[in-house]
Amino acid sequence: MSRIQTIFQRLQAEGRKALIPFITAGDPDAESTVPLMRSLVAGGADIIELGVPFSDPMADGPVIQRASERALAKGMSLARVLGIVRAFRAENDLTPVVLMGYANPIEAMGVSVFVDAAKQAGVDGVLVVDYPPEECADLTASMRAAGLDQVFLLAPTSSEQRFRDVAQAGSGYLYYVSLKGVTGAASIDMDEIARRIPRIRAVAGMPVGVGFGIRDAETAKKIGAVADAVVIGSRIVQEIEASERGQACANVETFVRGIRVALDELAGA
Predict the structure, then answer these.
(1) Cα 150 from Cα 133, distance rounded (Å)
(2) Pick the catalytic residue: 27, 46, 60, 149?
(3) For this structure, is 29 an active site residue?
């Protein structure tokens, strides 16, 4: 059983929801990323999504795009992201790390080389935004052979056949995009989410996390009432961007702890 599966199993037994924060590796610089990851854990993160910066993102809004640009300008690369995971893993063997990014850097490195390196670094899963299940058979096979989880996206427009497709190819959890748009948008339809999540869970047979557009504890709690996990990215990256030098870790920890408290109020409900 993977670290991701273990986390969800434990949380389910406790009646709690997973908190999955996202940050971009290398933002504001490479040296800050492991301390920021520590702050996410201290604030109550169950799984960390670590963004791999890419020059031409298609799903990220302006906040995360700026973070990628800052990271790339300082020399961040997929190989250096794996080095960051390795450094984090040397001191934390419990918190799962999921790399979130795009196909181009993986293909440039080579799928088999990437999977082997990710495994050795201590990565637990990968979410590749522009790899639908029908276009990444090599990656899926390599990930399974290495015992790593491959997380897929589902959209508000996804059909039940797509639910089955991603469930067959993926593992760990599914990531439901809460709105039609990019990260950081703010037009969540809670009624639609409440209708869709139970059906996705029933068809897919694995936990479902919801992300895009979740910016505060109130919204996170509403999402947590129907989903297995809440994913928050742009709001945290915004906190990092706005922080004075040396204050980002403390500010991120405080923000994440507020979300954790709100989600834990759902325990046993």
Answers:
(1) 10
(2) 60
(3) no
Q: What is the pTM of this model?
A: 0.95
For 229-264, the pLDDT digits (tens) are: 999 999 999 999 999 989 999 999 999 999 999 999
Residue range 3-264 forms a domain whose CATH class is: alpha beta
Asked if 56 is an active-site residue, the reply is no
Question: Among candidates 248, 243, 213, 249, which has minimal Cα distance to 231?
Answer: 213
Residue of 14, 27, 46, 49 marked active site: 49
Find the angle CA(84)-CA(44)-CA(173) to the nearest 5 degrees. 75
Name the residue ranges covered by the structural domains of the chain: 3-264
Nearest-angstrom CA–CA distance, 200 and 178: 13
pLDDT digits (tens, 9 = 90+) for 64-95: 999 999 999 999 999 999 999 999 999 999 99
Beta bridge mates, 49:
22, 98
Distance of CA 116 to the CA centre of its chain: 20
Which token pair is 92? 């934390």
